[in-house]
Fold this sequence. Notes:
By secondary structure, this protein is mainly alpha-helical. It has helices spanning 6-11, 38-48, 53-67, 88-100, 108-120, 124-132, 136-147, 163-176, and strands spanning 16-20, 24-28, 74-75, 80-81, 86-87. Strand 4 (80-81) and strand 5 form a beta hairpin. It is built from eight helices and five strands; from the N terminus they run H-E-E-H-H-E-E-E-H-H-H-H-H. Strands 3-4-5 form a three-stranded antiparallel β-sheet.
Amino acid sequence: CSATNANFFDQFDGGDAVSAPSGRLRFTVTPQSDAQSPVQTATSFLSERGYSPQAVSGIVGNLLHESGMNPSQSHDGGSGIGIAGWRLDRRNALRNFAQQRGTTETDLNTQLEFLDHELRTSEQRAMKGLASARTPDEAAAAFLHFERPLNYSAENPSQSHGFANRVNKARNVAEQFNELSAKAKPGPNFFDQFDGGAQAPA
């Protein structure tokens, strides 16, 4: 793999991306910093959970647009919270999810766990789109079924608020983390279960 742009990692407290088996990337922190940035934490978490490089880019690109990856970010006049802007019943579910784990709704790792939980259960439309995505652009569009922002429709998610910015951020994540080819297929044993409408594990 070619070297990754150092300036990108500097703004996120240092880091690097390396190739991993099965066509995935694993994101690691350089010795320059003991603490991961929220972006690095998210990319590492999603990669380790089996999401493809394209899916990781599309998800993180959307989250950067939504909140700048700030788990304490308030949305919609205070009704929403976090990296994905959970609100109403979904915010209540996040709060309950956190309480069961002895954490809070603004804990980043808890929010990432909850995001993964939703994708595997109640948000399978988004998961199936991520499973079939072959580019960061397609993955960014697929994750709009999870976010459902202003002007979203399932038939035409590209009309969603901030669509172009979401796609650009997904591309930036892919490029700066030395993304694999846009034609690379997701690794085995994870997305296969969602092809053809298979149900995700709860």
